[in-house]
Amino acid sequence: MKDKIIERLYLEKGFVSGEAISNEYGLSRTAIWKHVKALREDGYKIESRTKKGYRLVETPDNIEFNEMQEDLQTSIIGKEIFYYDSLESTNTKAKEIAFQTKEGALVVADEQTAGKGRLGRIWTSPKSKGIYMSVILKPDIDPVNVARLTLLGAAAINLAFADIGIESEIKWPNDVVINGKKVAGVLTEMNSELGIINYIVLGAGININVNLEEIPEDLKERATSLKIVKGEEIDRRELFIRLVSRIDELYTEFLTTGDIDRAIQICIDNSAVIGKEIVVYQGKEKRCGRAIEINKKGELLVQFDTGVENLFSGEISIRGKHGYI
Description:
The chain has helices at about 1-10, 20-25, 30-40, 90-95, 150-165, 225-230, 235-255, 260-270; strands at about 45-50, 55-60, 80-85, 105-110, 130-135, 170, 175-180, 180-195, 195-205, 275-280, 285-295, 300-305, 305-310, 315-320. It is of the alpha+beta class. A hairpin with a 2-residue loop joins strand 8 and strand 9.
């Protein structure tokens, strides 16, 4: 409930009456006062005035990802940052507040208790060990083109890694891998009606300072972290700033030009699958082929025995012929 109250105060940008909070969340005035007191103990500065209610004055300095706007030299992404100590999923929270926020708003959590990836898969998100964030986008584009933004997210992660001296590859359409193991993933979700996009949520999860023993046993063969790769702690704050900047850079180009050619080229140049034998899973069907190229639509061209097919991400999953990739 503390998170709901602080979110409400943040969105209002002014005083919120105790009566309004009471009606919205079914709380007594005493319960509201106790939650506000607890938030103050957490470091939030909340002003209270008789007949006016409560107003958020300042957020705590000890939150790693909070109050980043001064460090972010971005055009669109990160003008609003909603930080949570813990969330079930940043994508879920982003969808809850999307209609109340401007384009580019970020939802960031220090941990996720029910993080998710593509096709309903679980994304393990240990506290203070990674970046778990979602960006709310509201482009004026045809909904059929939304899936391509997943490639933009993957390309941004690849560039951010390069900015801190880490080489990586992209496993079409949404995974970033190092040494054949997944270190980051992108999940794109959309809300639309009658061909009009209300909002897009572009979520990203990155394993940063996760130790080997913290990776679930059933994932050790195909998952890793930047700390495991580098053998040292990684500055999450620096990587967060670089990632948001790279997303802003590529997304601004997309809004300006109407295409994601540069992002697609990054995915091609750093592909983990092009030129390799792969296994394509679609529903219960399993087929072997050879990845040839990624076209301008963001589709993966695969040579099967029956000929070349253009694969659209959708419900398709791919693996290497002899392992994860």
